[in-house]
């Protein structure tokens, strides 16, 4: 496994940081830096980084007038993919990857907020990325948009509320609609950062319902660590 990776994250909101990814990078001895896009639009040079991790956020990918940096961010993501960097997108990040690769991003029929199951696709067993993960996982969601699958992907997960919950392209590009990385503090900050009341719906849990299931966090974080370790092996050379 390659030591001392240079990993850069794009963070879109104070309430959606890198979560347990920061712990993983520290424990593995990798360098992790971030562009806080809500404060600064200083991007690194591509030759300065090995990985790009694109986090979630409350905006959608089309709000370029409200968030002008989205256009530059999309260009950077596309350039990182073309430069054969490892690129990981979580929630909004996965939608941005799908968009720059030519797939449609749009409102999901259902808003999905809380702890809900995702099921692995049959195609996901073509890769060892999810080895040992089990067929059905309880994971944390907070999204209203979704994406069609870009060309040439392996679909990874689906849920009752959302057909496309994750994808893998080659062995270096991963999109996840949900949040393996979320910590207890991160979930609390999501509610602090939410300006509007939660919408009503069959796949929207209350804050109390969500917090009462925080025992799933540890298992999710372990899966995040395992996924990152496997991507790290894939990025060797």
Structure description:
28% of the residues lie in helices and 26% in strands. The model has no long low-confidence stretch (mean pLDDT 95). The protein has 237 residues and is of the alpha/beta class. The chain has a nine-stranded mixed beta sheet, sandwiched between helices. It has one domain (6-234): Class I glutamine amidotransferase (GATase) domain (Rossmann fold, 3-Layer(aba) Sandwich). It is built from six helices and nine strands, in the order βαββαβαβββββααα. Residues 46-184 form the Glutamine amidotransferase domain. It comes from Mariniphaga anaerophila. InterPro entries: ChyE-like (IPR044992), Class_I_gatase-like (IPR029062), GATASE (IPR017926). One of its GO terms (cellular component) is cytosol.
- Within CATH, the superfamily carries the name Class I glutamine amidotransferase (GATase) domain
| Topology order in helix (H) and strand (E) letters | EHEEHEHEEEEEHHH
What's the number of domains?
1
Major β-sheet, in short? Answer: 9 strands, mixed
CATH topology assignment = Rossmann fold
Per CATH, which architecture? 3-Layer(aba) Sandwich
Please tell me the overall pLDDT: 95
């Amino acid at each position: 496994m390659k030591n001392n990776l240079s990993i850069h994250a794009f963070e879109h909101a104070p309430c959606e940081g890198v979560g347990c990814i920061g712990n993983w990078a520290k424990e593995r001895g990798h360098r992790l830096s971030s562009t806080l896009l809500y404060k600064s639009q200083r991007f690194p040079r591509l030759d300065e980084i090995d990985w790009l991790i694109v986090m979630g956020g409350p905006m959608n990918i089309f709000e370029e007038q409200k968030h002008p940096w989205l256009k530059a961010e999309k260009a950077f993501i596309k350039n990182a993919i073309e430069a054969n960097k490892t690129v990981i997108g979580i929630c909004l990040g996965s939608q941005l990857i799908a968009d720059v690769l030519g797939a449609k991003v749009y409102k999901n029929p259902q808003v999905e907020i809380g702890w809900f199951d995702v099921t692995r696709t049959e195609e996901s067993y073509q890769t060892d990325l999810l080895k040992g993960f089990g067929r059905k996982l309880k994971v944390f969601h907070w999204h209203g948009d979704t994406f069609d699958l870009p060309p040439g992907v392996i679909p990874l997960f689906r849920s009752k509320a959302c057909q496309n919950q994750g994808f893998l392209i080659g062995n270096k590009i991963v999109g996840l609609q949900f949040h393996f990385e979320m910590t207890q503090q991160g979930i609390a900050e999501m509610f602090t950062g939410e300006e509007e009341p939660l919408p009503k719906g069959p796949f929207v849990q209350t804050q109390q319902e969500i917090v009462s299931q925080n025992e799933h966090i540890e298992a999710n974080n372990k899966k995040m660590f395992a996924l990152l370790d496997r991507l790290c092996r894939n990025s060797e050379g």
